[in-house]
Write a structure and sequence with these properties.
Layout lengths: L1 E4 L5 E4 L7 E4 L9 E3 L3 H6 L3 E3 L13 H10 L7 H13 L2 H17 L1 E2 L6 E2 L5 H4 L4 E8 L2 H10 L4 E5 L17 H11 L3 E4 L5 H14 L4 E4 L15 H9 L2 E2 L2
Parallel strand pairs: 8-9, 8-10, 10-11
Antiparallel strand pairs: 1-2, 2-3, 4-5, 6-7, 11-12
Helix pairs in contact: 2-3, 6-9
Bound molecules: zinc ion.
């Protein structure tokens, strides 16, 4: 770590030339992540003018050492993880043996590198074609369409459905810029027209976007095959993923043909 003595007895510590890496010491405490402007001509010619405070001293809210702050920052990017949970997880990780932490890091990297999408149904898979699509004992005459892999997993847990799946990769949501072309709808249409299944079951959460997607797919697929949708027991606006297994199984049994 290098340090530079500034006029007026201020110290500037830094690890590298990246703006986010600076640590400013002395001077009045500044909040974490705030911007500070260097007014010293010598330094401003060497470094960017804007410096992000990553750690201030004497400020109770910014007490993390830099690697710990970075870990908390990364964990906080995960869905459903707020600052407090991120801190709890980070401190827990630090307490675990190094081998355990290495195994966790390796599992993250392996999962990211080795898991892709099935080329037939777009479910998560470590092979080009997923286990469900390769399974010859499963019924080829029905395709169950779901928004994402989480919904497929939820349906699989019911053990009620023995057909094949198709994962859309989301639902139509114009407000988020997701139209039919952003989803795997074209591949579904090709699959249905090529293999002529007896039935396509639409198992999409009944939210506003889910309904739009269901109606859109219904219109699109009806010329090719019988199209049904699951309906029973699922709360409107609810997520398929969070429904219990019995409710989901009933919903599947009670599917009806799309008008
Ligand atoms: Zn598949």
């Amino acid at each position: 770590m290098k340090s530079v003595l500034l006029k007026g007895g201020r110290f500037l510590f830094f690890h590298s030339l990246k703006a986010t890496d600076y640590q400013l010491r002395a001077g009045r405490p500044r909040p974490y992540g705030s911007l500070c402007f260097l007014k010293f001509p010598v330094l401003s010619s060497l470094f960017p003018l804007k410096i992000v405070i990553v750690r201030t001293f004497g400020d109770k809210t910014t007490v993390y050492a830099r690697p710990l702050a970075r870990l908390i920052e990364q964990l906080q990017r995960l869905p459903g993880v707020g600052p407090k949970t991120a801190q709890r997880l980070a401190l827990h990780i630090l307490k675990r043996p190094e081998t355990e932490v290495e195994a966790l890091a390796q599992a993250l990297i392996d999962a990211k590198k080795q898991i892709g999408l099935c080329s037939v149904c777009f479910h998560l898979s470590s092979e080009p074609v997923c286990e469900i699509c390769r399974n010859s004992t499963r019924d080829n005459s029905t395709i169950c369409v779901v928004a994402d892999s989480r919904d497929l997993i939820a349906l699989e847990k019911t053990r009620e459905y023995k057909g094949k799946y198709h994962v859309l990769g989301g639902v139509i949501s114009p407000i988020d810029g997701i139209g039919p072309e952003q989803l795997t709808i074209h591949a579904l249409l090709r699959r249905v027209s090529q293999h002529s299944p007896e039935e396509v079951i639409l198992a999409i959460s009944p939210s506003v976007e889910g309904e739009t997607t269901t109606l859109y797919l219904g219109q699109l697929l009806k010329p090719f095959t019988k199209v049904t949708r699951i309906a029973f027991g699922l709360p409107v606006g609810g997520d398929l993923e969070y429904a219990d297994e019995v409710t989901l199984a009933r919903a599947m049994e009670g599917r009806r043909e799309l008008d």
